[in-house]
Amino acid sequence: MSTVTTLGVTGLTSADSVARVTEQLETVERVEHVSIVLESDGESEVSVFSDQPVDEDALRGAVDTAGYAVASVEVQTDALAAQQAEQAPAKQRAHDDAARGADD
Question: Can you give the three-state secondary structure of the chain, one letter per residue?
């Protein structure tokens, strides 16, 4: 089961701060990959990818060790299935449109 934990982290302002947070989060057990969308004027979106849910306190501790603060946490379990379900209507429309085009 894939899991995406999204952290809202405040105070990130540069590539160096992103690197520090990424480095600390990657030391947390079960973390496979970290992706950060930097918002220097607000909460940066830090996505932590794992096969199973990761201990929230461990994630908060890693961000704290890097010198930043977690403002929000959202966990999406079975993220792959959720993504596929979200994309299904658009895929079905594309399929239907292609089928109609073949009938012309």
Answer: CCEEEEEEEECCCCHHHHHHHHHHHCCCCCEEEEEEECCCCCEEEEEEEECCCCCHHHHHHHHHHHCCEEEEEEEEECHHHHHHHHHHHHHHHHHHHHHHHHHC
Contact 5, 63 (CB under 8 A): no
Residue 104 in this model has a pLDDT that exceeds 60: no
Kindly report, residue by residue over 58-98, the tens digit of the pLDDT: 999 999 999 999 999 999 887 555 555 566 666 677 767 77
Per this entry, what is the length of the chain? Answer: 104
